[in-house]
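Case study.
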Amino acid sequence: MDLFLDGFAWIFDPAHLSGPGGIWARIAEQLSYTFGAVAIAAIIAIPLGLWIGHTGRGRDIAVLCSGGLRALPSLGLLIIFALGIGIGFKAPLLTFVILAIPSLLSGAYAGVEAVDKRTVDAARAQGMTEWQVLTKVELPLGLPLLIGGIRSGVLQVVATATLAYFASGGALGVFINDGLKTRDYAELIGASIVVTVLALVLEGIFALLQRLFVPRGVTAGQVTEVRSRSVRPRAVVGSPIQEGK
Amino acid sequence: MIEFRTVTKKFPDGTVAVDELSLVLPARQTTVLVGSSGSGKTTILRMINRMVEKTSGDIEIDGEDIHALNPVKLRRSIGYVMQNSGLLPHRKVIDNVTTVPVLNGVKKAEAREAALTLLDTVGLDRSLAERYPSQLSGGQQQRVGVARGLAADPNILLMDEPFGAVDPIVRSELQQELIRIQRDLGKTIVFVTHDIDEAFLLGDQVVLLEKGGRIAQQGTPAEILSKPASDFVATFIGADRGRRALRVEVVNGRNVVVDEDGRPTGVLQS
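After joint prediction, the assembly is written out as follows.
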């Protein structure tokens, strides 16, 4: 317990917080890796996932790939990239992009695939083009799952971005490494707490976003609401009760 | 007028759903395609808006080969109503109805105004316009489906077992509503069902289909009832049993019509 207190004390020590190499700066680096990697992964994986979900083509390959990519050890990958392209931020960023792709890819195609086939068929039969079917029907209805994919990608990267220090890429891993080397457990635990809190905050934000992006009509029909606001007028049976009699 | 000329549909797995079908569906009339599952009736319907592409033969609408047309354009000019309403769950009723006009470039406000009138036509209260489909009952959803099918004022309306999933009372209401709408609008309706009673009730022309989309008999309900072309037809329409095998008995000096079991169903008016 004392160690935790020491950890918190370390976090809130003004000397550690600001300045280059301070906690805020490292948090910013951690977040830059996270959102940078997820953004790049999104550009690659989301269109691909949507296409796979829409056409149903290449689904097996996608499953295989995302399964295989998930199995890759990030640390090993990072070291290979660092050896290849040198130390700095590029090797970790590339690693994290690869880490984020499977979640985003499967989120995108699962989202599109989960849309009721009859709804899609009806949309097409009304005369929507394939592009309109994708953007006006499949995408909005698949959005919750798509955002779920982004959410798990973000969480994976924010937790894994501590590895960046292995390639001298900064971020919160620096403190953890430092703490280990100098046996400064307050620093080690303090930094771990910061990473954990960061992950939890992001998780909370995305959970909220995911709720927000459930299309309105899809939640509107849930039993409770239908019951509370009856669509059909109810027949009045018997005479109304009159008060005060 | 819709015309099929020796049209065949063979699916990739080798099933021949429709085999050399030739059929004329007259304009401004209701043609009902009726048959059990596997008779190819839905396939025939879906070939008209090219949701299913024919393997061979010709399909023409008013003399124009539909395969020369852009399928998206073709579909926007034909109303389509399906069994499970097929409404977009994330769009309000009104936006579902205006789907096709808006795709066709009609201004949104204008399309909405027209859609409200259509809700009246299909017997829905205007207050439902701002609801989502999941907030409506099955029967109401089907009405919205019909309104959507009519929204672009198409000449042709394709209806694929539209009342198949609602309870019998609602179905009967919807059937009466459709008869009324058809009397007012005079569309060329192609209606698919497996319910022979529904076929006789709604069809100006009834096409009875056997396996492989072969026509067992085609004609007005009266023609089919009075002269079933084969045992298959006779069995399918139930000509030999139940409420279709009626007799007249004289009771108290009046002609009472009774069914097979002798239960009275009505009195002949002279």
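Observations recorded in class. The interface with chain B takes residues 116, 118-119, 121-129, 132, 136-137, 140-141, 215-218, 220-222, 225-226, 229, 231-232 of chain A (CB under 8 Å). Residues 2-228 of chain A form a domain with the MetI-like fold fold (CATH 1.10.3720.10). We will return to this complex in the next lecture.
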